[in-house]
Structure formats: structure tokens, C-alpha cells
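Input record (one chain):
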Amino acid sequence: MHESGFNFIVGIGRSGTTLLMSINSHPSIQATPEVNFFNFFYHSWKDKTNFSESDFLAIEVYVKSFDKKKKVTGFSWDMNLFKDKILKARKIDFQIIYSIFYSCFSYSNSHKIISHNFDKNPINTLMLQEIIDTLPNAKFICLVRDPGVNYLSRKEKAKETSQYLSRSSKMENIQ
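The corresponding structure, as predicted from the sequence alone:
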């Protein structure tokens, strides 16, 4: 993927970023789930010029941690493809690693030709300058929401999470 194909959906959480995942229905757009790749690896890999076996292991462990949390529901990520593309890359820098990482996702095992990849993650709002420095042609969609409505949404989500955890602990006691 070329640098011009990077797009970021940023802004305050609980403001509709997940709703924008519906753009995945477009034949040349892919919006991945919130995998936090940029903010997790940027500071330690921003000056990287080569890729070692321990780096491959770090990526593999990182992706597996998201699989366990079900954050990548509907998506698959191909470690073999990632290794192959990294090893074939003429040069290595963070922009290339980032690009290759996202090119290894597929949604519902579809293999569409992606011209625009969306990294949808409100936490990227805190990394805007780093993203712009790394990907100067990146485009951004910044979502905002009325603070009062956002508060109520967060409160409802916390209530749902609390009820889910309560039911889960009761189920564990039954077993």
C-alpha cells in the first residue's frame, strides 16, 4: 500500500468510530478494528532499519493478544504473509512496517484489492503529530460528539459491562 492510502478515524471514543466500520462494504476500502499498532510500536520502532526474529515474535505475540480479546472479530491476520513481505522489502522503516502490517489483514477472508486502509482508533488522537511525521499524506476523519451524550453513552456501556461481568462470574460459580 502506498502512503497516500492511509486514513485515520480519530476523535473521542463512543462517538461513532465503530459505526464507520461499515465502510468495509466498499470494494477497495478496509477499516481494521482497534489494534493500537501505531501507538504500541511507534516509539520503540520509529528508527528501525532492519527486522529480526525477535521482532517477528513480538508481532506474533501482539496479534495473538488481540485474537484472545476478540478485538479483531471478523478479521484475520496472516503472519506468513507479513514475514514474506518484510523479508522482500528493499528497506525497512516504520512506515513500511506499518503498511505491511495492515496489508496482512483480511475481513471475512475476502481478498479485495485495498486502495485505502482506515486505522480506526480514538487513541490515535493522542498521536496525531507522530502519525503526520511518519505518514505526511495521511488523511483524517475526526469524530466529535456532544459531551453530555458521550457521558451517557459511556455510563450505559459501563452498566452493560458490569452486568456482563456479573453474569460471567455467576456462570463460573455454577461450573
